């Protein structure tokens, strides 16, 4: 329990009505969870405006309310705090409530369209092998040393974030590696956090169901770097066309990594085949079982971060040579019949292109690649036709199926995926709504030289259909059908 005045430290308050010495048990922004002695933060969100529930939470016994507009009718013994932006305030309040844990741990935030999860996972693995206590906050799960917790969002809300960081500090973690999504930046979930390092992997079309435009998406990512202090570092993939833009207004120290041009950290791909990837980093060669140009960038990012965190070059490279892909990121299955299966989270046009390009290094894609692909419902509809065309143009055959249709009709989603296909390309596409049946059809259609790519869901262990989550695992399904 903390006094309200302690939570308000560093918060720009417009008006305060009432007693700031009020004891606070918890912070809530969900009116359904508000309880006795809580502080309720009224946030104007996408679906609901928390200001509409202020009377309800007061009836539940909250001690104080933070809001952007103080109600005309004020209740005695309730403290009201008016702020300019409630979501920004929530982050500061949560940080103060949990004793500012991000100041007590080396916090590294990774943002970008693709590569966030792999980079965060590789860093977690590396630093554990280097005998550090480490935390991870990612799309797949959250980890504190050897304990794992399920993840519901790429980046949790501000309260959950600070609670997790506080647990990491309590468990003696030296580092936390954290994915930072554009939603989290836009919704101020990372407000009040102190990042030692911010990392930019790349940016391509994604989340345009949420962002107003691609430019808005870019600017949202950029604002993460704009917010950094002079003692932080920005580590940026300068090969990406928007890499230099991320650095334009930041006060942080600028660190560049590249496969193509001069940078602080450089790498060259020596060999990229079905057996693995050999790269030369700062004139030191390592061979890994990872595959694809995108993994060369991920490994270089990890190396750059580790070196900036003061780790020994030889030790870092030794550990990286033995690293494995995280769940759902280019996970390979080799069957006894010679068929190769690949399960990947690729759910954007750029990610799908990159996975196909990596497969093309060991497969004649127009003769041997079979793609099973769906697109998520209630999400960016504009990318569906793009991804459908990419799949059809770069495969022997593609099977369009359900991903997570959510509230949408799967037939409608598949129809959108076919909108840009010529008659010739349409003849290369099968439509099978049931995802399990689609994967089964791909296996039955395959021969001993085939590669089957199951794209879009990766690590997910469910399908979301009409508000219900049904167990489904791409990797296990394919593994069973290939009888490995």
Characterise this structure:
This protein is of the alpha/beta class. The mean pLDDT is 95.
Radius of gyration: 24 Å
Q: Average the pLDDT over all residues and give the rounded result.
A: 95
Terminal residue distance = 54 Å
Low-confidence stretches: none
Strand order of the largest sheet: 11-10-9-12-8-13-14-15-16-17-18
- Helix percent reads 25-40%
- The rough form would be described as globular
Strand content: 15-25%
If helices are DSSP runs of H or I spanning 4 or more residues, what is the number of helices? 17
Structural class: alpha/beta
Q: How many beta-strand runs?
A: 26
Summarize the structure.
This protein is of the alpha/beta class and about 475 residues long. Helices cover about 30% and strands about 25% of the residues. A hairpin with a 5-residue loop joins strand 19 (about 330-335) and strand 20.
SSE layout:
Blueprint: E1 2-3, H1 4-7, E2 13-17, E3 23-24, E4 27-28, E5 39-41, H2 54-59, E6 64-67, E7 79-83, H3 86-97, E8 106-111, H4 116-129, E9 134-137, E10 141-144, E11 147-150, H5 158-170, E12 175-179, H6 182-186, E13 197-200, H7 214-226, E14 233-237, H8 243-246, E15 253-258, E16 265-273, E17 276-281, E18 284-288, H9 293-308, H10 313-320, E19 331-334, E20 340-344, H11 349-360, H12 365-368, E21 369-373, H13 382-393, E22 397-400, H14 410-417, H15 423-426, E23 429-431, H16 435-445, E24 451-455, E25 462-465, E26 468-471, H17 474-482
Parallel strand pairs: 4-5, 5-6, 6-7, 8-12, 8-13, 9-12, 13-14, 14-15, 15-16, 20-24, 21-22, 21-24, 22-23
Antiparallel strand pairs: 1-3, 2-7, 9-10, 10-11, 16-17, 17-18, 19-20, 25-26
Helix pairs in contact: 3-5, 4-9, 9-10, 11-13, 13-14, 16-17
């Amino acid at each position: 329990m903390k006094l309200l005045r302690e939570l308000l430290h560093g918060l720009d308050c417009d008006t305060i009505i009432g007693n700031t010495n009020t004891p606070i048990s918890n912070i809530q922004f969900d009116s359904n969870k508000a309880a006795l002695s809580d502080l309720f933060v009224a946030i104007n969100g996408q679906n609901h405006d928390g200001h509409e529930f202020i009377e309800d939470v007061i009836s539940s016994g909250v001690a104080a309310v933070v809001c952007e507009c103080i109600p005309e009718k004020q209740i005695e013994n309730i403290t009201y705090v008016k702020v300019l932006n409630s979501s920004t305030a929530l982050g500061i309040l949560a940080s103060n409530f949990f004793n500012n844990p991000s100041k007590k741990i080396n916090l590294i935030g990774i943002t970008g369209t693709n590569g966030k999860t792999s980079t965060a996972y590789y860093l977690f693995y590396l630093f554990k092998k280097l005998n550090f206590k480490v935390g991870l906050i990612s799309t797949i799960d959250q980890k504190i040393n050897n304990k794992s917790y399920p993840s519901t969002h790429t980046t949790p809300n501000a309260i959950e974030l600070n609670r997790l960081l506080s647990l990491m500090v309590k468990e003696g973690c030296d580092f936390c590696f954290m994915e930072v999504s554009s939603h989290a930046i836009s919704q101020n979930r990372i407000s009040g956090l102190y990042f030692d390092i911010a990392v930019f992997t790349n940016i391509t079309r994604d989340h345009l169901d949420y962002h107003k435009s691609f430019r808005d998406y870019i600017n949202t990512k950029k604002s993460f770097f704009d917010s950094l202090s002079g003692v932080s570092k920005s580590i940026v993939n300068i090969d990406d066309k928007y890499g230099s833009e991320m650095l334009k207004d930041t006060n942080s120290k600028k660190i560049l990594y590249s496969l193509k041009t001069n940078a602080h950290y450089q790498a060259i791909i020596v060999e990229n085949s079905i057996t693995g990837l050999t790269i030369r980093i700062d004139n030191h060669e390592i061979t890994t079982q990872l595959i694809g140009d995108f993994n060369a960038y991920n490994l270089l990012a990890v190396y750059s971060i580790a070196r900036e965190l003061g780790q020994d070059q030889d030790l870092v490279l030794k550990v990286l040579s033995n690293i494995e892909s995280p769940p759902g990121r280019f996970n390979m299955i080799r069957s006894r019949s010679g068929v190769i299966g690949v399960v990947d989270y690729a759910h954007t046009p750029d990610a799908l292109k990159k996975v196909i390009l990596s497969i093309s290094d060991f497969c004649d894609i127009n003769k041997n690649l079979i793609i099973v692909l769906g697109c998520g419902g209630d999400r960016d509809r504009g990318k569906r036709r793009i991804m459908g065309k990419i799949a059809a143009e770069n495969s022997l055959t593609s099977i369009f199926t359900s991903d997570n249709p959510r509230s949408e009709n799967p037939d409608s989603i598949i129809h959108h995926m076919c909108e840009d296909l010529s008659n010739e390309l349409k003849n290369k596409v099968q439509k099978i709504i049931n995802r399990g049946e689609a994967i089964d059809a791909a296996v039955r259609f395959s021969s001993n030289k085939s590669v089957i790519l199951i794209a879009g869901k990766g690590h997910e262990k469910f399908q979301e259909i009409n508000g219900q989550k049904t167990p489904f695992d791409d990797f296990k399904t394919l593994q069973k059908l290939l009888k490995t």
